[in-house]
Amino acid sequence: MRPLSHPRPHVKWAACAAAVALAVSGCGGGSGSGDSGAVLSASWGDPQNPLEPANTNEVQGGKVLDMIFRSLKKYDPETGKAENMLAQKIATSDSRNFTITIKKGWKFSNGEAVTAKSFVDAWNYGASLKNNQKNAYFFGYIAGYDKVHPDSGTQTASTLSGLKAVNATTFTVKLNQKFSTFPDTLGYPAFAPLPQAFFKDHAAWVKKPVGNGPYTIESYTRGSQMSLRKWDGYPGTDKAQNGGVDLKVYTDNNTAYTDLMAGNLDLVDDVPAAQLKNAKSDLGGRYINTPAGIIQTLAFPFYDPQWNKPGMEKVRTGLSMAINRDQITDTIFQKTRTPATDWTSPVLGEDGGFKKGLCGSACAYNPAEAKKLVKKGGGLPGGQIRITYNADTGSHKEWIDAVCNSINNALDNDKACVGNPIGTFADFRNQIGRHKMPGPFRAGWQMDYPLIQNFLQPLYYTNASSNDGKWSNKEFDHLVDQANAETATAKAVKKFQQAEEVLRDNMGAIPLWYQNGSAGYSDRLLDVRLNPFSVPVYNEIKVG
Q1: Looking at residues 171-187, what average pLDDT do you find?
Q2: Cα-flanking dihedrals φ and ψ of residue 228, to 5°?
């Protein structure tokens, strides 16, 4: 999803399906009926933006959208496979023109019927330049996007020409090129339907969002708590097995863990690094550590000429080689992270585009070579790098300090690298959005859907959605465009991996490690698990 972000170019997609091979453990305190009316409490952080489906592109807001909305597709909580949810049928004969039929009987929690128009209106709203939605690029493959969301200038159309409602249950989508796995992207919340209430009184809707998922929002106090409650009228098969979820805001996940151990919190879905060595003994079978589609990287501010001048690719590669990933993942993360050797995730599998070792020597710890490369490239800008990170969640200080220590040792300079903390995730994301980073910055990517394209294009294509550092490379873009034109999975994957090699040779970002999902929960809960996106499957949790 998500940065852990999203100006908009004409962004295209990839035509490749991923074979997701995951062993997601369905942990829990056994299987029982629980109390379907009981409410559980879980750790959370305030989302960066209002909870509009096309304007939420970070993890915390995404958790809520996953609870209050259902889209055409839903990703299986164990395998990650895209399966029909509101879609009755998605038909195409040419991988470019799609006829989508939705199931009857679906409603929003305010009683409005979910119709084809609910999707068409929502997608047109999300794509429109004037609405400034962060996920607008998700609609970039639909015909007419260049008119409603031009690269520059003002829009010349208010709706996508490739989108038409035929009747209450049918709409058609025309794409601007073939994209055989377009349906697999339609489980992402940006494609959720919206009720007419959203358009009639937008301010009221934003204050208290109305969706069509198994939960409704009862109340939200920023900085404190969001209370979601089971919607008894929910028509889907994945009904909530509990009475609701109170999402409690924590600015430090160490505090959340302490509250879990004290019995004041039921679920922590991001066990802090400082507690990983204790979590198994503290929680026993109530500790979850499972693979997830998440990679952590260091991004660079390419909008700063100092980082974008010739030779700096040597400096960036040298910094990558100065990081002892094995030591950091072993000692700080207690093997809940795996050193990254490419820019995707092992959860994709080889058929889906993961290629172990693609980064090669550029991601291997080699302090002597690191020092040589940094010197050859002209040295660190200003003589020092400051790695910016948010200090509120994720125990980032520990690993940032460890990365800096590794770099300092490799360069024989104890002042070469320092951490630069920013108080909250929201402030951190806002500064990134304003292009104010003074040097490298923490970046993380949680997949939106299990396709290799999602790990590369949104992050590194020129002016793309989450290209926060503004890296730009014509060869990379060209290879991505070629991959987008492929309808055969294997050919598309090969093209994407060629693009990834360009990313490697320029070190457009430093891959650090693949991240497991980690969670801990109280003995009140049953049937707790994380999905392949490292998010708790809230609706399945029972409260004993």
Answers
A1: 89
A2: -110, 145
